[in-house]
């Protein structure tokens, strides 16, 4: 949560402060910024002498203003709806008049005035997209899948950081060390945690939570960057020329990954760069990563990847792997997808399974993705026996699957279609379970039982269910409380 106040906007000496002017791109009106309300809406007044006492004033020092504007930008609900301009406080009213003239009747001279004072979208707002679409850097955050990472040298030295200066923003060196974040920062990565930060400009006090990172300063020494937490990802505005489709937005909000490669436009050169897009799950920032810089490992958790699987990962798609060597989990299967923010493949469990995988993957059927070997057998015209399908209530069931070459779809049966070769029918017992739990059918022997049927269940499983079956209108028996 952020907090902004304007209790004493004259506290900064006029010659040391700047004023933020803004143009609403729809209204085409130049005004002065006074702050941001708690809902992320921009607060403004007309840029007149009468209103000067309300103008938001900020320290014009380079690093201070950069950090201020980065966090200020993040507080706004729709920052791309506006154009911002930084002008000296004593010139604010007159400059606003000149800018309004340019808006009303454009001239080359007026265009130069606007360009001189315009404040561009913060670098960290474009963060990884800038780095990877325009000047890609090293792979960050060597965490969950360390086998996919290369060993990186330190990029910065702790002694080059002005820790006393950073303390003014609430950055505690000891806490970063204790949290295990110092190495990440000095290697040029963002922290894996968000930290409370505050910036006191006298006229404006800003408090927010942010991920932290370093970037090169003009003297080559590290400069602190604060990646503030946004209310939600901005998926309504174009991102480096890409317009998000409905499916793009759904995938990003559900899994954090868009699931496909798109061409992003380098704003400096106009170059079209194939890239994948993800969401920073800590800050809700939109992140891009160049496809040609994606490094896919040969194996993940003991499972060797096929060339098709490697290609899918580079294309931003999710793949399903079985038999993963998770040391602290009984679950050995998971979807895996490359994440643009983390710069390595991540695991997607449960409801994070991406929509594109479920709807478009030819290996996907009845909530399950076939292994490469199973899919190979199916395409060869063989019938396979699957023992780990899940019904609508999450219970396992078994059955036989065959690829129908006429329709291109799959045929399912509880009985083995090739009964002459194999008379055993172990899946038949699951027929009632799936019909009741997944298809809404009824079974006379269990129609009054309220709980989902268990695998192979054909009749009431205990006395309580039998009583419910015999007398469906009887009130539920209370267990009572022991005294």
Walkthrough of the structure:
It is a single chain. The protein is an alpha+beta fold and 483 residues long. The two termini are 48 Å apart. Strands 1, 2, 3, 4, 5 and 6 form a six-stranded antiparallel beta sheet that branches. A three-stranded antiparallel beta sheet has the order 7-8-9, with helices on one face. The chain has helices at 62-75, 92-104, 108-117, 123-134, 163-167, 173-178, 182-186, 246-255, 307-314, 355-360, 372-379, 431-437, 463-470, and strands spanning 17-24, 29-36, 42-46, 57-59, 82-88, 118-119, 195-200, 205-216, 222-228, 262-265, 272-279, 286-290, 299-300, 303-304, 318-321, 334-339, 344-348, 364-365, 368-369, 384-390, 396-403, 410-413. It is built from 13 helices and 22 strands. Helix 2 crosses helix 3 (108-117). The radius of gyration is 30 Å and the shape is elongated. It has four domains: 14-124, no CATH class; 126-228, no CATH class; 234-360, no CATH class; 362-472, no CATH class.
């Amino acid at each position: 949560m952020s907090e902004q106040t304007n209790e004493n906007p004259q506290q900064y000496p006029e010659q040391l402060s700047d004023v933020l002017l803004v143009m609403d791109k729809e209204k085409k009106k130049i005004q002065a910024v006074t702050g941001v309300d708690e809902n992320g809406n921009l607060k403004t007044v007309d840029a007149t002498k009468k209103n000067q006492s309300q103008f938001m004033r900020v320290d014009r020092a380079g690093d201070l203003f950069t950090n201020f504007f980065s966090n200020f930008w993040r507080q706004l609900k729709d920052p791309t709806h506006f154009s911002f301009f930084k002008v000296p406080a004593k010139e604010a009213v007159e400059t606003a008049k000149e800018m309004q003239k340019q808006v009303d009747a454009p001239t080359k001279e007026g265009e130069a005035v606007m360009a001189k004072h315009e404040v561009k979208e913060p670098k960290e707002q474009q963060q990884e997209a800038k780095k990877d679409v325009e000047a890609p850097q090293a792979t960050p955050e060597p965490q969950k899948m360390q086998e996919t990472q290369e060993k990186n040298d330190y990029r910065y030295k702790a002694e080059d950081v002005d820790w006393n200066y950073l303390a003014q923003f609430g950055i505690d060196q000891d806490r970063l060390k204790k949290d295990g974040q110092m190495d990440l920062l000095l290697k040029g990565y963002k922290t894996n945690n968000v930290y409370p930060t505050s910036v006191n400009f006298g006229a404006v006090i800003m408090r927010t939570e942010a991920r932290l990172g370093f970037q090169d300063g003009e003297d080559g020494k590290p400069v602190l960057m604060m990646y503030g937490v946004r209310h939600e990802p901005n998926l309504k505005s174009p991102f480096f020329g890409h317009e998000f489709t409905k499916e793009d937005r759904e995938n990003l909000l559900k899994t954090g990954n868009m699931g496909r490669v798109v061409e992003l436009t380098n704003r400096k050169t106009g170059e079209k760069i194939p890239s994948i897009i993800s969401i920073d799950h800590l800050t809700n920032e939109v992140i891009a990563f160049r496809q040609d810089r994606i490094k896919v490992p040969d194996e993940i958790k003991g499972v060797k990847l096929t060339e098709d699987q490697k290609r899918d990962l580079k294309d931003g798609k999710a793949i399903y792997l079985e038999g993963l060597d998770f040391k602290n989990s009984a679950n050995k299967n998971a979807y895996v997808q490359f994440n643009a923010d983390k710069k390595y493949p991540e695991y997607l469990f449960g409801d994070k399974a991406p929509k594109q995988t479920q709807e478009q993957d030819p290996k996907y059927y009845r909530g399950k993705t076939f292994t490469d070997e199973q899919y190979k057998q199916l395409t060869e015209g063989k019938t396979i026996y699957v023992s780990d399908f899940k019904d609508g209530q999450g219970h396992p069931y078994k059955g036989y699957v065959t690829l129908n070459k006429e329709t291109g779809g799959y045929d399912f049966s509880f009985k083995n279609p090739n009964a002459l070769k194999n008379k055993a029918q172990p899946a038949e017992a699951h027929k009632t379970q799936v019909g009741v739990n997944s298809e809404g059918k009824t079974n006379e022997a269990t129609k009054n039982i309220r709980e989902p049927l268990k695998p192979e269940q054909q009749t009431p499983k205990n006395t309580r269910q039998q009583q419910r079956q015999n007398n469906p209108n009887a009130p539920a028996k209370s267990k009572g409380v022991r005294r």
